[in-house]
């Protein structure tokens, strides 16, 4: 029982950290704490004043604490992978600050997003005990292999974020002219492959969420072009529906 409770708490915190990451981008707080990582002296004070980046880091820290507790009290394949994924998310989180500062390539943002989603998936499965550890590993393998390439969609979304450094407009992608536009186009292509795969596999509920997510994605594109530095809450909403797609894949595939 305690494992389930801690699993649900960790899942909620991990999902919240992902959505908060979207809010950070949406309101231009990506480098509000500079490249100092993981903490600054007044981070709690800044969180109290509503700085989403400070809140994001505090929530991520809580995920790490609960992850370590679960690893200690229930040492198994899922908790091991979960702890590794949160450590990877944290280290790549530091790298993303340097991506935003223009000191590292955008692929680090993509890998960070994969690690963050793996953390969410891991603790959701641990909490619900919906599938066995072997099927859990199978789910992760399916996310990076044909037919649906889920992690490639997530990765390219992160690359787009990293390439635009949370401040650049994407522009007209009908005739890609630069790295950012090509990243967005590739993101769209792998998303289209993902939709086709869901149809072939007859994963209808995930497909519905994916189509809603794509509509939010187009809205995100519009908002970024309208206001590149502060596109608004739509970025967080984009992440929220991405989580919904992942959850539906776990329970309805």
UniProtKB/TrEMBL annotation:
Domain of life: Archaea
Transmembrane region(s): 6-33, 54-73, 79-102, 137-161, 182-201, 231-252
Keyword S-adenosyl-L-methionine applies: no
Record's keyword terms, sorted: Membrane, Transmembrane, Transmembrane helix
Protein name: Cytochrome C oxidase assembly protein
Record gene name: ST2358
